[in-house]
Amino acid sequence: MSAVRPVLDPTSGRADGRRVTFQRLLRSEQIKLWSVRSTPWVLGVTVLTIVGLTALFSAVVTHDAERGPDAHALAVQAFTAVAQTAQLAVVVIGALTITGEYSTGMIRTSLTAAPRRTPVLWSKLLVLFANVLVVTAVGVALALGVQALIVDSRGFSVDFSDPVVQRMVVGTPLYLATVAALAFAVGALLRNSAAALATVLGLLLVVENLFFIPWKPLSYVHPFLPSTAGLKLTYNEVTIASLNDQMHGPDLTAWQGYGVLVAWVAVLLGFALWRMKKADA
């Protein structure tokens, strides 16, 4: 007697006929993300970086009690440095989340199981964003605890009821998760790990610094670069005003700057989705 083969439902993408729902795609992407050995390592390093840098900067800026900064300066010095350094780690996981599937051919399996390409890309992005956001938020919470111990022991305090301090604390994991999404979008567009990492790191580290050259046309573009705009979430109002004075063009607020970073992600993701629909995996 011949074996009965399961019938593939072309509308479901599964051999047993069950529908491929967006919730199942999310669950699948969550499993895939954490089945890669680099994920816990990279996110673990990210948390250690957040806690370690916060402790270091808090100790340094409160070393001399007579010249110690106020609460706002203390918070921004710690979390701006945290965001600028930890973004290097989240860029790696953001790019590899999608480029790793192209290098191993796993993307073809994903698209066979779920032929509609838009949900596949969105599920990967949402799982990445949520995981980076949660892990970095935990890192920030731990860092705040360490910071409180250091600051309180030296006679300082941070007023967490201040909306500016709250925005900087919340903005750090939000910025890092969005930078991971930026790396993901570039990776989905280029489909190559080395090219994606070189592009994103070059954009965040090299191109951003080139725009500090005192040439007026560059100062009009500088406010719209992803890191310059997005990092405003981790700045206090005095620092934001100082940066705006150095640049021409619109004076972006912290949340407007974050909107610019989100726009970068949206545009690059749109191109990546267009390529995914037009070109073979």
Oligomer category: single chain
Give the structural class: mainly alpha
Helix tally equals 11
Give the ordered list of helices and strands. Answer: HHHHHHHHHHH
Q: Cα-atom Rg, whole angstroms?
A: 22 Å
Mean pLDDT: 84
Please mark out the parts with pLDDT under 50 across 5 or more consecutive residues, or reply none. 1-16
Indicate how many domains the architecture comprises.
1
Itemize the secondary structure elements and their pairings.
Elements: H1 22-35, H2 38-61, H3 71-104, H4 106-113, H5 117-153, H6 163-190, H7 193-210, H8 216-221, H9 226-230, H10 237-246, H11 254-278
Helix pairs in contact: 1-5, 2-3, 2-5, 3-6, 3-7, 5-6, 6-7, 6-11
General description of the model:
With 281 residues, the chain is mainly α. It has one domain. It has eleven helices and no strands. It has helices spanning 22-35, 38-61, 71-104, 106-113, 117-153, 163-190, 193-210, 216-221, 226-230, 237-246, 254-278. Helix 2 (38-61) runs antiparallel to helix 3 (71-104) and helix 6 (163-190) runs parallel beside helix 11. The longest helix is centred in the middle third of the chain and has 37 residues, at 117-153. The relative contact order is 0.12. It comes from Cellulomonas alba. This is ABC transporter permease subunit. Keywords: Membrane, Transmembrane, Transmembrane helix. The chain crosses the membrane at residues 41-62, 74-98, 125-150, 170-190, 197-215, 255-274. Pfam families: ABC2_membrane_2.
